[in-house]
Amino acid sequence: MAQHTNTHHSNQGTNNRGFAGMDEEKQRKIASQGGHAAHAKGTAHEFTSEEAREAGRKGGEAVSKDRQHMAEIGRKGGEARGSHQGQRGGSSEQHAKAGAHSHKNR
Fold first, then answer.
1. What is the pTM assigned to this prediction?
2. At 60, phi and psi to the nearest 5?
3. pLDDT for 11-61, tens place per residue?
């Protein structure tokens, strides 16, 4: 029996098919159309400020449980701070001293 080799498919499975396989701009356009249709129909959910606050809190809790991810965020922030330190003027000690003086006047 002859063995057939299919050269039209990659080993990536379904990664390049359907919505996920479209470029980002096309995905955005389709998603936007769906959002507009839901609003026009009256079935779109609009978050209240309380719902949005709660969703943000839950998301923050979920992200903060990943200690490795949080450490990476902190490391990147520290690196960025170090590379921009001269732009604000003064050393960290000078900033601390200025901050201490500004709190005395309150």
1. 0.33
2. -65, -40
3. 445 567 898 899 999 999 999 999 899 989 988 888 899 999 999 999 988
The answer, yes or no, to whether residue 98 has pLDDT greater than 90, is: no
* Block residue for tokens 């959910």: 45
- Cα separations (Å) of 18 from 14, 21, 22, 27, 29? 8, 5, 7, 10, 14
99 CB-side CA count, 13 A: 7
Q: What angle do CA 89, 95, 100 make, to 5 degrees?
A: 155
- Tokens representing 92 are 């960290």
**Residues making up the chain, counted from first to last:** 106
| Assigned token pair, 96 | 């601390």
